[in-house]
Amino acid sequence: MEKKQKAAMLIDAENIPVSYVEQIFSYAETYGSLAVREIYGDALSLSNWEEAILRYLIHPNLSVRILKGKNSSDIALTIGAMDLLSRKDIDTVIECFA
Fold this sequence. Notes:
Oligomer: single chain
Largest sheet: 4 strands, parallel
Distance between the termini: 37 Å
Helix content: 25-40%
Structural class: alpha/beta
Strand content: 25-35%
Strand order of the largest sheet: 3-2-1-4
Low-confidence stretches: none
């Protein structure tokens, strides 16, 4: 029996509208079982995703925006992806950002 791949999904809530959530998870599941589901953004961005976070069991990563431009959410998402890439139990990391 073939081993099912384990995937990780990381979503940038500040740039991806919640209206895409079904498409995102439908696509992500083609890569295997979603072992990690994380969403990144400031409090305002994540509040738009509240229902989807609960429905899809997504782990929220809250950041605080202090300056304009590149923000801590982008950096946290990048660090999260790099961390997942080093894990032996994750075969694929999928980032959803704009």
